[in-house]
User: Fold this.
Amino acid sequence: MLRVKILLFVLAAAVLSGQAPDLILVNGKIWTVAERPPTAEAVACAGGKILVVGSSAEIGKLAGPATRVIDLGGKLVVPGFNDAHVHFFIGGAHLAGVQLRDAKTEAEFRDRIAAFARKLPQGRWIAGGDWDHENWTPARLPTRQLIDEAAGDHPVFINRLDGHMSLANSLALQLAGVTRKTDDPPGGTVVRDAQGELAGVLKDSAQAFVERVIPAPSDDEIADALKAAMRYAAENGVTSVQDMSASPDVFRVYQKLLARGELTVRVYGAQPLGDWQRLSAAGIRAGFGNDKLKIGLLKGFADGSLGSTTALFFAPYLDEPKTSGLASDEMIPESKMFDRIAGADAAGLQITVHAIGDRANRTILDMYARAAAADPSRDRRFRIEHAQHLTPADIPHFARQHVIASMQPYHAIDDGRWAEKRIGPERAKGTYAFRSLLDSGAVLAFGSDWFVAPMEPLKGIYGAATRRTLDGKRPGGWIPEQKITVAEAIRAYTMGSAYASFDEKIKGSIEPGKLADFAVLSADILTIDPAAIDQVKVVMTVFDGRVVYRR
Ligand SMILES: [Zn+2]
Assistant:
């Protein structure tokens, strides 16, 4: 009864304000991620907000002459995904750049550069590429002569996919002042042909000769990268991102896109923790901005990564017993990290710290507890990014201390292929401990860590619910006791991430008054076998009440 009254009230309010819906979705299965109702058939939106959620019959009646009505044909709708950890510009620059990774021959490699160069504004550098000459027959290194004509007036400096060598064209070498007389630098090689002429490839430290003359990206180049990233986000139902690398240059361009009405994803930008005083001096506190672009999150680093054996553990690595990892330079001495956390927290900024190893996580949890003791009741929402390896004793601390675990489930099915050889089966039990964290009452915020992993929430949900490693060797799941349900994974990718940016009142669920951001899926991931979720696609994305992607 109460629900009916609320519904009538909302409808009356909408009608009184003269607000006919501009968008109505009907005949779907709306998974609201709200307590009541958990599912609905239809949703009406106006002015970028959700007006009402209910049955197709009720909501269909609200359509006015200007209302766009979309029949969902029974498809599942979830709140727009909120990726709590991305590196949006770097990822976008890869997408917007020349794609050479799968070029199968020298000729294809050259032709792709030529085609890319033709679309580029005059004189702009061509970089990135990720080529791999091992795919070619014969597998010989590419040369500057191969690409000089293709590149035209564009300087080129494109890297092999391992980053250990890059190919320059003649123009780039000339701009860098590299000639046949240039000596090999320590730790690097300038590759030469049989006559001693420059061949174009520079290896390892020799790459710096050209890197240092590549200009910083212009605002237009940054905008092109961010637009490519936004298209990729829309294709995957991502309507909010929390950008861990929102440097001043990138943030300036976000503002330009916002002003031009071109932002199709909501952005919460993080700055380095070491910069907290600059933000604080400008009076910026957590949540400064609006529902499309916010600032006030600071990100620090406690350690490195498991892959490079620099994640900081209590015990040594099994396969490198001389080390238990490395604290980041921000932690040397640890008092420096604590002072930054305490200072930024007292200034009202939000703090998150990258912590992978169990010791790094413990250290940061302890620092958070000490910092919070100064004013225990404040709603500060400390976060840990990755929270990848936790001791059993530390898992309950997340809930107890109200620390958000900002985790990336795709990493679990990727790293799960080889993590145990590094840390052993016993320590591995606390790896990506989604189930234990949720059961202890912690808030999980899910993300991808794109560009390190794909920005594809459905792949993350698949990973969290199945824990099937990418090599197919763990069909029952790696550490299966840490699986969570699909519904829990959706919640972590929507409400959890919204909570992690203080936005749970305006997004994260499909409820009247919240922002009209949705993803429509090709299959009902709540009822199909979770192992089939990696085949499911996003078929439509609605951002701010507008359809920004349709498959
Ligand atoms: Zn990251």
In short: The CA atoms of residues 83 and 241 lie 5 Å apart. The pocket of zinc ion is lined by residues 85, 87, 244, 449, 452 (CB under 6 Å). DSSP finds 18 helices and 24 strands in the chain. The radius of gyration is 25 Å.
